[in-house]
Amino acid sequence: MLKNKNIVLGVTGGIAAYRAAQIARDMSKKGAHVYCILTKNALNFITQQTMETLTGNPAVVDMFARPDKWEVEHISLAKRADVFLVAPASANFLGKMAAGVADDMLTTTVMATKAPVVIAPAMNVNMYENPVTQRNMRTLRELLGVTFVEPSVGLLACNDVGKGHIAADADIIAAVERALGKKDFAGKRVLVTAGPTREALDPVRYLTNKSSGKMGYAIAAAAARRGAAVTLISGPVALEKPDGVHRVFIESTQELYREMEARCEEQDVIIQAAAPADYRPAQVAEQKIKKTGDEPFDIHLVQNPDVAAMVGQHKRPGQILVGFAAETQNLSTNAGKKLLKKNLDFIVGNDVTRPGAGFDVDTNIVTFYDARGETSLPQLLKSEVADRILDRVLELM
Q: 354-395, pLDDT tens digit by residue?
């Protein structure tokens, strides 16, 4: 995917700058044309000559240096880039970019580019967790669609231990490759649901399930990466919002029903990966329920509205509906029934009792059920399953 692609690599000042050399070399070995921009502070850790030797291209520092041939160099590099990568990115760089400050070659060029921007931060854990740094990252995600390759937890150069260690080279290069990926969902509106619902019993207790939301979030991230305008309706989860996705939080199945009813008609694709509760308590106590001796406590449940069935009833011509069936037995039979009952184009089934296919893991083992029959996939990362689902949607479209 990197072959003959132009990658502009920005390097900021910090001990992790030495890692830029290996990243540049690895991308060059994959066939990319790498052009480096170093800040003056980066020169305290790595040299222009090193980067030029590894890439075979000039490495730029001074915005006002006279080039070998006349061109406005920062504009030339900004236009040349297929992807703009900054690795490592310091807190100082993030603050300047978020504020629109362009006072050196790197910030000027990244402000001028229209290419996808991928940033791999690296800094002290306290700097990374500082609310100002986190605000700057949110600003860059929301305003510019910047993709961040999150730092890992490790021993830092200052001997602190925490999140701030630059991500693995392979993860950074994979993010660049994703940024170069196909935009085959451009112009499409995709709605994804994810996570569990909570059905209140009293002010402090609720009924829920084990859904982590990871599968739905992976689908939303993949659809956005492939160019879709994505709305993610999410139950309560502990996951970061995917880049370029509009997220709406819901709590109960009834809230999910109302959001879907209001939004489903305008969507081109609806992928329902959430796990809404089928039942809710008939009554919600106004105060915390207290124990009364050894007497048993009975909860009377009533059925929740069927969200997927409602969406299926409102399905318009040309709209693609995808459902999920997380089962513990009779997967094929149960998935087939849901496919017909909910008016779905296809359903993604998985047996959650299988290792590597259950809740709160990063992998899944799924089977697609549709009018053509069954298509089983091997164990894959949920991010890979997400792309397989989207590929199938495209076939149907």
A: 888 878 788 888 999 998 888 888 888 888 899 899 999 999
Residue pair 130/36 in contact (Cβ under 8 Å)? The answer is no
Ordered by where they begin, the domains of the chain are: 6-179 (3.40.50.1950), 189-282+298-396 (3.40.50.10300)
The structure's pTM equals 0.64
Q: For residue 394, give the amino acid letter.
A: L
Contact criterion met (CB below 8 Å) for 190 and 229 = yes
Please list the active-site residues.
Answer: 158
CB 20 within 8 A of CB 28: no
Q: What is the pLDDT of residue 155?
A: 67
Does the structure show a pLDDT above 80 at 64? no
CA of 237: how far to CAs of 190, 217, 360, in Å?
20, 10, 11
> Is 312's pLDDT higher than 50?
yes
Work out the pLDDT band at 152, boundaries 50, 70, 90: confident
Query: How far apart, in whole angstroms, are the C-alpha atoms of residue 322 and residue 300?
Result: 32
Structure tokens at 265: 């008609």
* Beta-bridge partners for 321: 270
Whose structure tokens read 């490759």? 177
d(CA 258, CA 267): 15
H-state helical runs in the chain: 18-29, 48-55, 73-80, 91-99, 105-112, 125-129, 131-144, 169-179, 214-225, 253-263, 307-313, 331-341, 382-396
Q: Give me 241's structure tokens.
A: 């919002």
pLDDT of the residue at 70: 42
Distance CA 342, CA 211 (A): 21
15 φ/ψ angles, rounded to the nearest 5 degrees:
-60, -30
Task: Tell me phi and psi for residue 115, to 5 degrees.
Answer: -75, 160
pLDDT attached to residue 67: 56
